[in-house]
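Hey team,

Filing this mostly as a record. A colleague (T.K.) asked me to run one chain through the structure pipeline before their review meeting, and I want the input and output archived in the tracker in case anyone asks later how it was produced. No errors, nothing strange. Just documentation.

Input sequence:
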Amino acid sequence: KLQIPIENKEKRAVIGKGVRRSTDKPQYIHVKSEEEEIETIIKYIDDLIKNKEYTPNEILLVSPWGKSSVHLIYKLKQKIEEINIQICDFERSDGIRLGTIGKAIGLDFKAVIIFGTNMLQSMKGEEKVSFDSYEELEKQNISVKKVFIKYLKNIYVACSRARDTLIVVDDIKKSSLISEFLKLVGDSKDE
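Output structure:
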């Protein structure tokens, strides 16, 4: 519908199915600031460990976007370490994994918290990608549409890492198609 040419060089495709076993519905939480986002994530980590009895190595904190979320990842890492919870990289399994979706591809976790969605509006430097409606998106050139589809794919991959618990913390300032897509993931809870 967006008239994006599809390059399908693969001869076969693997069709997967969701592996979420939990009866818990995914949760969507909208926050208004980076500080509120970090506080919300810490609250949910605490709940997962104390009430659901997950171990830190069963939890993934993932941003669906890359380099632009590094400063948020750093601040979140500091706050988590302040409450004496171990953070580890993706090669080890002695703590909470924290990073971008590129590192989490192919892995799955009992609990996944997706954050840093505001970074999805950054594209090629300072240019912002934020569409209030599908009609606005349709008017964009092919390269912008491709980036938008990549955003949605990254969110999908992040969501598919969760076996039992999925929490999306959305910090997008202005309602957009990305936020509308994120709201479809789970029950809405504005913090």
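Quick notes for T.K.: The chain has a mean pLDDT of 78. The helical segments are 34-50, 70-82, 101-104, 134-138, 142-159, 177-185.
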